[in-house]
Predict the structure.
Amino acid sequence: MANTLYKSLLFASLTGSSVLSGCLFSLSYISVASILAPPDVPERLMLTQWRTVFNRGFHLCPPSAIFSGLCCFTNAYLTYRQEGLSSGLRLYGGRVASLLVAGSFMIGIVPYTLSLIVPLEVSLLAEEAKMRKMLQAGAEVNHGMNGKAEGGSSEENVTKTRSMIRRWAKLNYGRMILPLTGAVIVCIEYIRGE
């Protein structure tokens, strides 16, 4: 018999991790694709738009990951308290073990982000800050109608910035897989029932 909050916590973790996966997917598939679609986008515009995408993801994703992971961990704890070690932590198929694994996948975006994505984000944010400083100092940093770099941006910088944003999007797709895997485990656990 499952704890009284079992289904509620399953639905909460499933909802949180699904929203998180969808958010991460849309950041790369929709937002970054829109930034990079025009071939002659000025570097400063690319960086400014990317920073907006970054800020939105930064405010939406970590709370969803922590919330959904904590729901799984709380559910695992309550199940363990009610059913005990013998029925909950069996190596294969134990309810508590499944919930712990699902929660770990959901919160797994934090170490993934810190190790793989943050160094790239720091570089992109530094480039954006540099562009903003140049604009505030009165330097003209723009592109002509033909897409050629003028002022403070070189064609190499534009290509490098495009490449970094494209790499960020690919890493973001990888990050999306973690909470999605946790959601699948929660769905399997729900289907298995009581």
